[in-house]
Amino acid sequence: MKFIHEDAMRxxxxxxxxxxxxxxxxxxxxxxxxxxxxxxxxxxSHQVRLLEEELGTPLFIRRTRKVVxxxxxxxxxxRLGGAFDAMADAVAQARPRPGRRLATLSATLAFSARLxxxxxxxxxxxxxxxxxxLHASDEPVDLAAGEADAAIRYGRGSYPGLVSVPLMTECFAxxxxxxxxxxxxxxxxxxxLIHFDWLLAKVHNKxxxxxxxxETVGLTGLDTTAGLxxxxxxxxxxxxxxxxxxxxxxxxxxxxxxxSGVLVQxxxxxxxxxxxxxxxxxxxxxxxxxATLRDWVLGELCPAAGPSxxxxxxxx
Length: 316
Description:
Residues 13-70 form the HTH lysR-type domain. InterPro entries: LysR-type_TF_proteobact-type, LysR_HTH_N, LysR_subst-bd, WH-like_DNA-bd_sf, WH_DNA-bd_sf. By secondary structure, the chain is α/β, with parallel strands linked by helices. It is 38% helix and 21% strand. The chain folds into 2 domains: 6-94, Winged helix-like DNA-binding domain superfamily/Winged helix DNA-binding domain (Arc Repressor Mutant, subunit A); 100-316, D-Maltodextrin-Binding Protein, domain 2. The chain has helices at residues 15-27, 30-37, 41-55, 71-94, 109-126, 199-203, 210-217, 233-241, 255-260, 288-301, and strands at 60-62, 67-69, 101-107, 130-136, 150-155, 162-175, 193-196, 228-230, 246-250, 271-281, 312-313. The longest helix has 24 residues, at 71-94.
């Protein structure tokens, strides 16, 4: 049993007295406050008097047809008004919204920012009875515990206890701002290389690195460890867009930048990475949240595949 020291507890007057006072101060009338709260003016007067006694200070100047808050009363009323508004908002958020459903999708930080967020606005247009919650994290959520309805995972496609739908295979190539684009791989010896240190790639022993790329192209004499290193892919992308160097980045995540010309791929080759899969718990196929998210993700990212394509239990 947890014991809380008395000094750490909230020591408040009765809530009824606070509500009566706040309404009377806002309306400057015991009669109007009574009508709002569904009690008698006498009850409002009694609650206010109890509060004044507890606080040891008058809160109103009582006049014939109205009551006027004192300086102390005005200060208290302002703070209580904000507190009651916050309480009302918290209660409203806790209540289920009638006629609407919530679907929660988890994905990595970069995947969420680059591929899901730009498409999120279309979700409610396509599914007007639903709200979408995107959970962005490079740490996998516990789908069995209900932390999310479904997720997009990066890996080798084998997820025990989960059904997986293959989405895309990641591939990496040199990209940079067109302002500093090198003419050929040999020019990289004079360029600043941009690296990102992604934990998930390390876990799967499939880290895309400049060393791998240089070995593939047969480029020697390139210091593949020098340059700028970032701990997340989004920062590496922003550095490349800013013209700070040449980065080895995921092409599927850079669709908008490559199409607009903000970034260019000056040359190859392309290195293949692992895959992105849409995953959900086994046996959850019929859940409306899972079906809605699956249809949306496949429709946005794999429109040619169709909403029911590629289901496999436990593997890609």
